[in-house]
Amino acid sequence: MASRLSSRTARRRTAAVVAGLSSTALVLTACSGGESEGEGGGSDDPIVVGISLPLTGDFSEPGKGVQRGYEAWAQFVNEDGGLLGRDVELKILDDQSNADRVVQDYEALIAQDEVDLVFGPFSTRLVVPSARVADEYGMLFVEPAGAANEVFEQGFENLFYAAPAIADDHYNYLADHILDMPEGERPQTVAVASMDDPFAQGTAYGLRDKLADGGLEIVVDEVYPPNTTDFSSIAAKIDDSDADMVIGGTQYQDAVNLIVALQQLDYQPDLAAFSTAPTNPEFSAAIGSETEGILSPTGYTETASWPSNVDFVERYTELHGNPPGEDEANAYTTGQVVAAAVEAAGCAEQGECQQELISWLRTNEVETVVGPLTWDETGKPQGAHLIQQYVDGEIQIVLPQDAMEADFVYPKPAW
Amino acid sequence: MTGTLLFQSLVLGVLLGGLYALLAAGLTLYFGVMRVVMIAHSAFLILAAYLAWFFNQQTGMDPLLSLVVTVPLFFLVGVGMQRLLITRLRPATLTMMSVLLTFAVALFIEGMIGFVWSGTQRRIQLPYSSASVEFFGAHIAVVKLVAFALAALSLALLYLIMKHSRFGQALRATIQHSEAAQLVGIKTDRVAGFGFGLGLATAAIGGTALSLDATIYPSLHWHWIGPLMAIIVVGGLGSIPGAAIAAMVLGIGQSLLQVPLGTTWAQTIFYVALFVTLMLRPQGFFGGRLAQRF
């Protein structure tokens, strides 16, 4: 009895200590909050950039890539003397791939933490709600991932997409190339499977509609929810149609699972195009040697010779031991775009400054790691994506002609 | 739609149903033995898949060999979890509180997987990953066949243990009437602990089977727990054969429905079945009342 009693007292004591500690922590944070408010806008304060990213949940894979890109950008800027002579500090929250969380996060970052700038999150589904929050507060919103057409149909006046092209235009070079082939040689039938996601569908349907307009027949057109993990039935449908070409509107695991399921059914198309996944370094590790001939659009390649890219790839590789991927590059581009506006406007804080940044980006071109970028009035970038293909075991640019590293392989070898 | 596609879908459905059956068997066992709703079952499943991947990554050997370690390990973890956590819950609110407790365990496992192996999506690359055998015009992937065989074997073993071993008899007695079981000298506490361990051991096998043909990531378990919960309710909570039959029927149903309805609607079969069961036969279609007829 005595021991039980003493253990209970001990437990109570622990609880008191914990409560004490947490209230101290509360007071401390309150104090530090007040302090930064007092000095806010001082020229030596770091410029705080608020960001919410999916670090856990369905989009954690690309989310972490974007995080690496943002962090690399902040580090390199600080090494080079900062922005407007001030250090840059990132405040990154985890939205768990959840659209409700992302709204809360940006509200908190802008209203409570009073960050000076915001950068966008990952994935179209999260970009639209968060851009709306930023719009309400009049904040410039440059984002690395909201590539679907609907992002630009919302009437946002503060949004800029930091990549060469929107989702629907990703495959433009491939569509042109296929339609330029002689009638007898080009694929006649097309199977499409896409995740129920604005970005994934944007890429796949952009290509599908251009090919359909050009006279190709769409024989399978499947949509699957983002939580789908078993692709054997979709693969069975595609296999049954025996389409000449397969288009996957994919993110990552869905592309890998679908490709393996198609291989298991011994379906052999002449062309296979999947968005996003094939440009991921994990992709070859997952599929093995059977990637040959798989196509994918990319907004970025580490070998591009844009001046800032050479520098970026070199420093990033030194930092991480491997070159940056597309997610990292898009995040870095976002940083570059905002930085260019900040340097030009000479300010980085909430309030009128944000409108100056927005107006400057409307009318100016920015040199980035994905090439020079300009935007129309909706924030849509004015370019197209490069088309890459696995040739000799490596993913290489095959289209357009003037950027190509290897010849376009058609029909694709068996997988 | 052609006959080949229909047959192919049927074959895929049987293979999928087999895996569901094994996974649901463990889940229904916890409920049968202890009235515990084990939300963390699928989290352990993914953990086992990660261990299989890690084993393959480190040694280069076939992931199936990791079973030698994971099955006993999960059994012990299961016994420990039952003895140290579940028994601390008050019997009166056990079922409800077990939801909260195992939900926390699931979050913990998901977080630890992400912490240790990061959120990067993993897949085991096997020489036979994309190999398949032809079966009356349908292609059966070798990995799916192996997973199915593993599931069938484990279910058969589970059945033998439950039906023909003294432990199985004690376990069934505990499921049916734990006080009466105590009266005839069964140490129901220990039996319940072993029962929980047995359930978790099926998660080890299921996870390894899953790892052969799936891209895995820490939050994947949430996609599994919903259908599995639906399966054990349809099959009758606590009934292993009920769970197995329901799993097979729903697995095949899902696969066949994908042909006309597409993936989005085919997924709802689990929940439609759940609603129909609760409305028409709340005790489940295939099992008796709480598995009294195992």
TrEMBL record, chain A:
**By its UniProt entry, which SUPFAM superfamilies does this protein fall under?**
Periplasmic binding protein-like I
**Gene3D superfamilies the record matches:** 3.40.50.2300
Q: Which UniProt keywords apply?
A: Amino-acid transport, Signal, Transport
Q: Pinpoint the Leucine-binding protein domain residues.
A: 46-391
Any single biological process term in GO: amino acid transport
Give the domain of life.
Bacteria
Looking at the Swiss-Prot or TrEMBL record, what is one Pfam family this protein matches? Peripla_BP_6
**PROSITE patterns for this protein:** PROKAR_LIPOPROTEIN
Keyword match Transport: yes
Please list which residues make up the signal peptide. Answer: 1-30
User: Any keyword ATP-binding?
Assistant: no
PANTHER family named among the record's database cross-references = ABC TRANSPORTER SUBSTRATE-BINDING PROTEIN (PTHR30483:SF37), LEUCINE-SPECIFIC-BINDING PROTEIN (PTHR30483)
Q: Which family does it belong to?
A: Belongs to the leucine-binding protein family.
Know the name of this protein?
Amino acid ABC transporter substrate-binding protein
TrEMBL record, chain B:
**BP-aspect Gene Ontology terms:** amino acid transport
Entry keyword Magnesium: no
Return the GO cellular component terms, semicolon-separated. Answer: plasma membrane
Please classify the protein's predominant subcellular localization into one broad category: membrane
Transmembrane intervals: 6-29, 36-55, 67-86, 98-118, 138-162, 191-212, 224-252, 259-280
UniProt keywords (A-Z) are: Amino-acid transport, Cell membrane, Membrane, Transmembrane, Transmembrane helix, Transport
Specify the superkingdom.
Bacteria
A molecular function GO annotation: transmembrane transporter activity
Cell compartments where the protein resides = Cell membrane
Question: Short name of one Pfam family for this protein?
Answer: BPD_transp_2
Give the bilayer topology: Multi-pass membrane protein
Give the similarity note. Answer: Belongs to the binding-protein-dependent transport system permease family. LivHM subfamily.
The protein here is known as Branched-chain amino acid ABC transporter permease
Organism of derivation: Cellulosimicrobium arenosum
